[in-house]
Design goal:
Elements lengths: L2 E5 L5 E5 L1 H14 L4 H16 L10 H10 L9 E5 L2 E9 L1 H19 L1 E9 L5 H9 L4 E6 L20 E7 L2 E8 L6 H9 L9 E2 L5 E2 L2 H6 L1 E2 L9 H16 L17 E8 L1 H4 L2 H19 L7 H13 L1 E4 H14 L10
Parallel strand pairs: 4-5
Antiparallel strand pairs: 1-2, 2-13, 3-4, 5-12, 6-7, 6-12, 7-8, 9-10, 9-11
Helix pairs in contact: 1-2, 2-4, 4-5
Length: 357
C-alpha cells in the first residue's frame, strides 16, 4: 500500500490497500481482540466486501468501533447464535455477536429450509451493528434467492422542531438474483442520509448539506457535531419526511416489537450492539418457478432501461466498483489510516501499511 495523489470525494488524499491485505489484516485484528478465528473471518469478509463495493462509511472504517465494543464487553467474542424454528419462521438470538457472524448463520439456516418451504421469515434479537445491510442480503442473492432485511436502530431520527430523537432511521435492504447479471441490491436508511456519513463528516471536520439533520433544539443544521447531538431528518422532503417516519415505524414493528428486541442504546461513535432485525428469504424456484422469475425480471428491467436510457439498476454500479477495487485497491482516508495503524500497534498486529514494507 502506498500514498497516492489520487483524490477522494472530499478532496482528501488517500492510500490504498488490496483486498487480500485487508482480509488478512482485519481478521488478525479481530483475533487479537479475542474473536474466534472463524467468526473473525466472517466479519472481515463482510467489512472488506462492503468497502470493495464502495460503501466506505460502513466497511473497514467500522473496525475500530467493533474492536472497542469487543474489548469493552458490549459484543461477544465467540457468539453462540441460537436459531429456533417456529413454523415457517426462525427465531434468532444473536448472543450479542458481530452481525456478519449472526447473518452468515441466519442465511445458511434459511437457505437450508427454502427448498421445502419456499419462504422463510426470520426474527433476530441481540445482534451487533449490522453495518451495510445490502452486503448481508447479497449473500442470499448470489445463492439464487430473494432477501429482504431491515434493522431496528436506536432513536436517532425526528421531524423538524422535535424535542429529541423520536425513532430509529431503521435501514432496509433487498437483494435478488438477475440471470446473467450482477444481483439487484438496494439498501437505504430511512433518514435523508445514513448517519454514518455524518459521523464521517465529524471525523473529517466537514460540514453537512442542509436537509440532513436537526440540532438538539430541533433546528435544521449543517454542523455535523450539532447534528450528532440532535437527530437525523427522515427522507421524503416533498412529504415533509412523513413517508420516512411511517416506514421507520413499520421496520420498528417487524425488527423490534415482533423480534422481541428491546430498544438499544446509541454508541455515539456510530455503532450499536443489541439490536433487532427482520429478514424474509424467498426461493423463486418454489414460489413461481425459476424460469418464470428470470424471464419476468429480465422483461421489466428492459422496460426500465428503455425508459431511462441506460441499463443501470441498484447494485450494478457497486458490482462494477467491486471489480475495479479488486484491481486497484481499496482507498483509505489518511484519518482511517492513522487510526488503523494505532489500533494495530495497540493489538500488536502487523499492519500492511506504507511504512511497514
Amino acid at each position: 500500500m502506498s500514498r497516492s495523489a489520487a483524490e477522494g470525494n472530499t478532496g482528501m488524499p488517500r492510500s490504498y490497500i488490496t483486498a487480500s491485505q485487508a482480509l488478512a489484516w482485519a481478521s488478525a485484528v479481530l483475533v487479537a481482540a479475542g474473536v474466534e478465528s472463524g467468526q473473525a473471518a466472517d466479519t472481515a469478509l463482510a467489512l472488506v466486501r462492503t468497502s470493495l463495493r464502495g460503501i466506505d462509511t460502513h466497511g473497514l472504517t467500522r473496525l475500530p468501533g467493533y474492536v472497542a465494543q469487543l474489548r469493552g464487553g458490549a459484543l461477544s467474542r465467540n457468539a453462540n447464535v441460537g436459531i429456533v424454528p417456529c413454523g415457517a419462521s426462525l427465531l434468532v438470538d444473536g448472543d450479542l455477536g458481530l452481525a456478519p457472524v449472526v447473518m452468515a448463520r441466519v442465511v445458511d439456516a434459511a437457505i437450508e429450509r427454502l427448498p421445502k418451504q419456499g419462504v422463510v421469515s426470520v426474527f433476530i434479537r441481540r445482534a451487533g451493528h449490522f453495518g451495510c445491510l445490502g452486503t448481508h442480503a447479497l449473500r442470499a442473492a448470489e445463492a439464487g434467492y430473494v432477501m429482504l432485511l431491515c434493522q431496528q436502530t436506536p432513536a436517532i431520527m425526528a421531524l423538524p422542531d422535535a424535542r429529541g430523537p423520536a425513532i430509529g432511521n431503521n435501514p432496509i435492504a433487498m437483494a435478488f438474483p438477475i440471470a446473467g447479471r450482477a444481483p439487484f441490491v438496494f439498501d437505504m436508511a430511512l433518514s435523508a442520509v445514513a448517519r454514518g456519513r455524518v459521523v464521517a463528516a465529524v471525523r473529517d471536520d466537514e460540514s453537512i448539506p442542509d436537509g440532513w439533520a436537526i440540532d438538539s433544539e430541533g433546528v435544521p443544521t449543517s454542523n455535523a457535531v450539532a447534528a450528532l447531538a440532535g437527530a437525523m431528518l427522515p427522507f421524503g422532503g416533498a412529504s415533509g419526511g412523513h413517508k420516512g417516519i411511517g416506514l421507520a415505524m413499520i421496520v420498528q414493528l417487524l425488527a423490534g416489537s415482533l423480534a422481541g428486541a428491546a430498544q438499544a442504546n446509541l454508541d455515539r461513535g456510530g455503532s450499536v450492539a443489541g439490536v433487532g432485525a427482520f429478514a424474509l428469504l424467498i426461493d423463486p424456484s418454489v414460489v413461481v418457478g425459476r424460469s418464470t422469475f428470470d424471464a419476468d425480471v429480465a422483461a421489466w428491467l428492459v422496460t426500465y432501461a428503455d425508459a431511462v436510457g441506460n441499463d443501470r439498476y441498484p447494485g450494478s454500479a457497486s458490482a462494477q466498483k467491486e471489480v475495479a477495487r479488486h484491481r486497484g485497491g481499496i482507498p483509505i482516508s489518511f484519518v482511517d489510516l492513522d487510526a488503523w495503524k494505532a489500533m494495530s500497534t495497540e493489538l500488536n498486529v502487523p499492519f500492511f501499511g506504507d511504512d511497514s514494507e
